Input
Amino acid sequence: MAKFFVKRDDQIMVTKGREQGKTGKILRVIPEKSQVIVEKLNIVKRHQRPNPQFGQGGIVEKEAPISISNVMLLCAKCKGAVRVGVKILKNGSKVRYCKKCDEVIDK
Output
């Protein structure tokens, strides 16, 4: 299984598709399918049957997965979508960093 440069609660920008240029927060990473679910992006309508868990049925809007290759991490310092690298610090821990401005993303 591949390692990914994004984690839950990261701010990302969509680089391809109908949501191109929009930003949002990652709600869930699905590593088996190389997909992410982004808050309030790629909304689809699904029909929901009435059941005890959801109560009344109807048409429900929810976020659909986006391919992880179509998103880029947002850098707080650069204010844009950037490529991400991994550094190993002196204490042996790994951190993600912005390849544009060399700013550490993981605090």
Summary: The beta strands are 11-14, 23-30, 35-38, 43-48, 58-63, 66-67, 71-75, 80-82, 84-88, 94-98. Residues 29 and 36 are 4 Å apart (CA to CA). The chain has a mean pLDDT of 92.
